[in-house]
Amino acid sequence: MTNPPDIVELDVDAYRAAISGLAELTLDVVNGGASVNFLADVTAAEAAAWWGARVDSVATGQTTAFVASSAGRIVGSVLLIRAAQSNAPHRAEIAKVLVHRDARRQGIGRTLMLAAEARARRDGRWLLILDTVTGSPADRFYRSLGWQEAGAVPGFALEPDGRLVSTTYFWKDLR
To answer: Which CATH fold topology does 6-125 show?
Structure first.
């Protein structure tokens, strides 16, 4: 990639239009071994259905989707999911931090995370949470961004190849 990708916050119409690209991104990261809800045999239709199931949440504003795109292709994503509980107006979750294997080590993940954090601050959401595979490159990435470990749950999820792995929960206070 020669030019840095564009980071875009998607409205619901743009989100709908991006679903096939998000599905392709998902297949790439799963095929690269990332544990992001799917096993190795995930199909494009299954990945698209997962992203499509979030349209209503994007439409209501509970979820904000950000994508990184380059040369008309989605190369990264992040979701900011606001807590819906009345006792949690200050909290949100970060999810689906994905970067295409061909676009890694270029600051795309960091830029996406900073965009999501900035939006959370604007919304008054100062406590963020996320989870990832314990000891993974993503685990190290979140730590490099100042995320704090809350704890790990052994045997929480399966890697795409079916191996059982632990998940570490993280939090970040944006105040």
So the answer is: Aminopeptidase (3.40.630)
